[in-house]
Every structure is written in C-alpha cells, then in structure tokens.
Amino acid sequence: MSEKLQLNEINSSLLRIANSLEKLNERQKKSKIFLTKSNCYFWENESKSLVAIDNIAFIELSLLKGIDKTRDILMQNTKQFASGFSANNALLWGARGMGKSSLIKAVHAKICNNDNQSGKRLILIEINREDLVSLPHLMRSIAIINAQFLVFCDDLSFDKDETSYKSLKTILDGGLEGRPKNMLFYATSNRRHIMARDMIDNEKSTAINPNEAVEEKISLSDRFGLWLGFHSCDQDTYLEMIRSYIDYYAVEIDDKTLKAKAIEWSMTRGARSGRVAIQFVRQIAGEKKIAL
Q1: For 27-30, which contacts have Cβ atoms below 8 Å and span 24 or more sequence positions?
Q2: Closest Cα to residue 213, out of 231, 229, 200, 224?
Q3: What is the fold of 52-230?
C-alpha cells in the first residue's frame, strides 16, 4: 500500500472520529445535561436540565438504627451498580419516618466518599413523582455520559385515575428501549404496591375480570427487583436512635433525663421513628443552645 493511500485512510478515519465527536457534543448541548463537580442533582422537568445540589442534606449511615439488614442489602446492590455490575431497581416501602429516603442518600454518600473503586462517578438524581413523564428524556440524556446514575423518586404513589404508572412500568422493565445500563431507579413509598387501597378496590368493582385489573395495578411494584420493608420501631430501638444522635452531636444530657424526655416526646407525637428521634434531638440541642 502506498504512503499516499495510507495517509488518505488515516485522514478519512480522523474525519469520521471528528464527526462522531461533533454529533455527541451536539446531543449533549441539546439535552442540557451538564455535570459540575457535584455528585447530586435535581431533575428540572420544565427546562429538561439538571440542577446541581452542592450541599446535600444526608445523615451518616452509621446513625441509621434498626434497619441493619435493609441497609446492608441496599449498600451491596448499590456497590455492584457503582462498579458497573448487575444490580436491581429498588423499592423502599413501609412506615413513615423510618429512614427510607435517608438510607438512599446515606448509601450514596458513603460510596462516593469511601467505597467507590470503579473509577466512575456515582451520580444521584432526584426526580419528582409528577415529573416521571419526562423520565424517558432524562434516560436518553444520561445514557451517553460516562458515569453511573441513581435516579431517585421520593414518596412514589399513584391515586385514582392516574395512568402515568403505565409509562413507568415500561421504563423500568420490558420496553423496547429499556433503561440505560448506567442508570438504576430507586423509589420510596408508604405503600408496598404503590397504589392506594381504594384505587385497587375500585378496579375490582368496575372491571370485567377483577383479578386481571388488580394485577395490572400492582404489577408496577414487581418491576423492582428489591423490595425493602421498613416497619415501626419499638421503644428500645427508638431510644438507641436518640442516644446515637446525642453522642454524634456531643449534646450533654444525663441518661435518666434523656430517656424520660424522649418517651414523653414520642407520646405527644403518637409515634416512634427515626424522624421523631431526630426532631427530639434538635429540640434538646436547641434548648442547650447547640446548632446541629
């Protein structure tokens, strides 16, 4: 092969590479997906763009008590994904205030700060439930970016007459397009099957085949490979949560007074949970002129 022919082939290859890079750059500009140094973002549906969150509010993983097994399962699943291996979409469901969304943010922070050996960034994106219709656009935009993306929807639920759950089903599993390999979907819900009970009952009463109608409604939760349940805690676990926060924030108070005040606080709130515990600790810290 002549030297001139070789040069022509090299020039042709370089031109194809340049064209490909230009097309990729145009796609990124069109999608408005630009990453800063932050590893946390909020998906803004109106502008179809990511808004960086530089100071994310999260609780240290070690402070989340009473959910040890659930914590370990979600951590392992997220580590697998961060390393580029197979992992499952996860639905965290159950009692209010028991740390569902806090666990997702804490696991993400832990992996980003200490445990990510893959060399790729692990990006957390929060999306509002009402903006799920734009999820396909977000998926296509992040699919071309060299990073791993956890898309997170807090308090996922659907009420009567809502149909957007059908598009979410297709996105999570089974559609022609499917989800990108660099994206995982985590959601929290107070309901195991995400649908309201009266919504399911209404389907039973109006459908020709009630069983098939109900299966259509609850099959959305089946798209999540992991179902992680959160349940109300007992008094000992509640007090352990409080003691953990008190020690972490170095709030000085004797055990007897702390226990009495903590039990009284839970009784006035009519609940025991991680949320009630941290609210109590904020109150005690404020009384002692401590800013958490």
Answers
A1: 27/144, 28/144, 28/145
A2: 200
A3: Rossmann fold (3.40.50)
Which of helix, strand or coil describes residue 32? coil
Domain segments of the chain: what residues?
A: 52-230, 235-287
Structure tokens at 278: 């941290």
Cβ atoms of 108 and 78 within 8 Å: the answer is yes
Chain-centre distance for alpha carbon 19? 36
- 17 contacts: CB under 8 Å, gap ≥ 6: none
State yes or no: pLDDT of 194 exceeds 70: no
**What's the rounded Cα separation, in Å, for the pair 117 and 228?**
26
Can you tell me which residue has the tokens 């530089």?
Answer: 54
Q: Are 123 and 41 in contact (CB under 8 A)?
A: yes
Global pTM value: 0.79
| Cβ contact 148:123 at 8 Å | yes
Ordered alpha helix ranges (H), the chain? 3-31, 68-82, 100-110, 135-142, 164-172, 197-206, 210-222, 235-248, 255-269, 274-287
What is the per-residue pLDDT across 68-80, written as a single tens digit (0 to 9) for each?
Answer: 999 999 999 999 9
Non-local (6+) Cβ contacts of 130 within 8 A are none
Burial of 231 (0-12, 13-18, 19+ CB in 10 A): exposed
